Amino acid sequence: MFDPSLFALFLAAALAIALAPGPGMLYVAGRTLAGGRAEGLASSLGTGLGGLVHVLAAAIGLSALIAASAAAFEVLKLAGAAYLIYLGIQAWRAGDAEIHATPSLGARRAFRQGVLVEATNPKTATFFLAFFPQFTSPAHGHLALQFAVLGLVAVILNTAADVAVTFAAGAVRHHLVAGHTAARRIRKATAALFCGLGVSLALSHR
Questions:
Q1: How far apart are CA 157 and CA 47, in angstroms?
Q2: Is the distance from CB of 165 to CB of 59 less than 8 angstroms?
Q3: 1, 140 contact by CB (below 8 A)
């Protein structure tokens, strides 16, 4: 299906991109700091599933539609930005609560939020559209299938990177939450992180 040397180049590039900090990775780190390793892992799986939405969209041509339509891009972008800012406000309110109140969302809700955060990120869709065609060719088989395979590989690499970040952030959190003041600051920082991601997404250009 793929030229071996070209596929090796894709793997190298996709791995470098997966290791570069981005909205998904920062979201997972923030959720781990807020609710612990279980929430971080659930968020990682959620963002992975959200990424698969874009893989399916790319394979059937929706990514091309989003990239071509400024209106469609803006609607999806603003929806994702609004959701991230909403998460930030919720985290800030939790930070104002008593330290013994439960700030954690639970793994199930963290998973759902991870899906929504990644699925409503139009930058992922346009990235797939811009990056993947370099490694596909009609001569190597059906283009939709090639897109699907490359997308699946990219999602696996991204999810693996997010899981690694979860364990790293979980180790840091274990030391930081020893005091009430530190725990409150973690939640405030998490709130600022989510709001910052939302604003950044809202201001991004196609």
A1: 12
A2: no
A3: yes
Helices (H), the chain: 4-19, 23-35, 37-60, 62-68, 70-96, 107-119, 122-131, 143-176, 180-203
Place of tokens 């991004």: 204
Say how far residue 155 (Cα) sits from the centre of its chain: 10
Rounded-to-10 torsion of CA 28, 32, 37, 40: -20
| Residue 15 phi, psi (nearest 5) | -65, -40
Report the C-alpha gap between 194 and 125 in whole angstroms: 21
CA atoms within 13 A on the CB side of 181: 0
Domain boundaries, the chain: 39-203
- Can you tell me the distance from the alpha carbon of 32 to that of 47, in angstroms, rounded to the nearest whole number? 13
| H-run or E-run covering 137 | none
pLDDT (tens, 9 = 90+) of the chain, 206 residues, equals 677 877 887 888 888 778 876 677 878 888 888 888 899 999 999 999 999 988 888 888 755 665 567 676 677 667 767 877 877 787 677 654 443 333 567 888 889 988 988 888 776 776 777 677 777 777 777 778 888 898 999 999 999 999 998 998 888 776 655 555 555 666 677 677 778 777 876 776 55
Separation in Å, CA 87 to CA 31, 36, 71, 149: 10, 16, 25, 32
